[in-house]
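Title: Comparing notes on inverse folding

I've been comparing how different people in this forum approach sequence design from structure. To keep things fair, I'm posting one structure and asking everyone to reply with a full sequence. Here's the target:
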């Protein structure tokens, strides 16, 4: 009887052990966080990961999509001068637009932060309008402003005695135009992110710096920027990814012209894959964004992790 009871108790303890381990696992914050984010992970996997691997598969096929050609599409692109012009234009477009968006957003955020709290809501609402409007719709308005025949900007220039500017007819002005529209659309995002970061900086730090005799520049360099550095890095990384993959602004404004001078990866991929009927070649073009963005993300995230460990 004792042996039977001992065995029964041992079996009960063995059965209770997995249940208690499972209970402890479910009580962990990391497990709860994973379960809460699991639906989003599945959505991302189905909408992002699968198409990404499918694009890799397409890039290894022939134009008819019936024959495996390996790196043939990539080697073909390497021999085309237009492709390298697209690579250069994509980098210039993305980097210059992100730099200007970051600078404008930073100074506008400081301007709004200096306004009393009651008046900030009005300014935030007005300055967020460019970011809220659908990009294709706002770009169409800019297209009318840059129109060679009915441009409102050229109308003002002519009345001031200045020759009209071929915004969309000259390669250099066309590049300037697409960057300008992207900055106008994306700067409010930087502004709202930096404004949130500014509000998280304790006022006691500025008060202590003022008592020590620090001027405006010293407070900005030694307090504001270090406290905002992670937000700045994350915002820049996110904007860089979105800007590199931008399609609608260039497509609506210039369609890649004149003479392919404003094409970026997305529009050139669309030109080759959809309009040209060579989907594998278009997929190969789009994949060139991956290593560029991957290297940028690694450096930015490594810097953020390093500062987190130092803190």
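Reply #1:
Here's my take.
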């Amino acid at each position: 009887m004792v042996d039977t009871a001992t065995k029964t108790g041992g079996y009960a303890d063995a059965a209770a052990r997995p249940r208690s381990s499972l209970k402890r696992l479910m009580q962990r914050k990391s497990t709860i966080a994973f379960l809460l984010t699991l639906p989003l992970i599945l959505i991302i996997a189905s909408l992002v990961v699968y198409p990404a691997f499918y694009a890799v598969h397409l890039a290894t096929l022939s134009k008819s999509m019936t024959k495996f050609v390996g790196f043939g599409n990539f080697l073909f692109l390497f021999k085309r001068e237009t492709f390298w012009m697209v690579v250069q234009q994509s980098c210039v477009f993305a980097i210059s637009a992100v730099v200007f968006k970051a600078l404008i957003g930073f100074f506008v955020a400081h301007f709004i932060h200096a306004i009393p709290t009651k008046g900030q809501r009005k300014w935030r609402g007005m300055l967020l309008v460019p970011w809220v409007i659908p990009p294709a719709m706002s770009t169409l308005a800019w297209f009318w402003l840059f129109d060679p025949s009915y441009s409102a900007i050229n109308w003002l220039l002519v009345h001031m005695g200045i020759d009209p500017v071929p915004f969309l007819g000259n390669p250099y002005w066309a590049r300037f135009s697409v960057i300008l529209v992207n900055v106008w659309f994306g700067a409010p995002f930087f502004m709202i992110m930096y404004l949130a970061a500014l509000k998280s900086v304790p006022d006691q730090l500025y008060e202590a710096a003022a008592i020590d005799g620090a001027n405006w520049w010293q407070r900005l360099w030694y307090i504001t920027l270090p406290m905002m550095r992670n937000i700045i890095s994350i915002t820049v990384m996110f904007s860089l990814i979105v800007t590199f993959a931008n399609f609608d602004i260039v497509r609506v404004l210039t369609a890649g012209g004149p003479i392919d001078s404003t094409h970026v990866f997305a529009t050139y991929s669309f030109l080759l894959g959809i309009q040209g009927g060579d989907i594998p070649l278009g997929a190969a073009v789009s994949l060139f964004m991956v290593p560029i963005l991957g290297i940028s993300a690694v450096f930015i995230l490594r810097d953020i992790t390093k500062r987190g460990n130092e803190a």
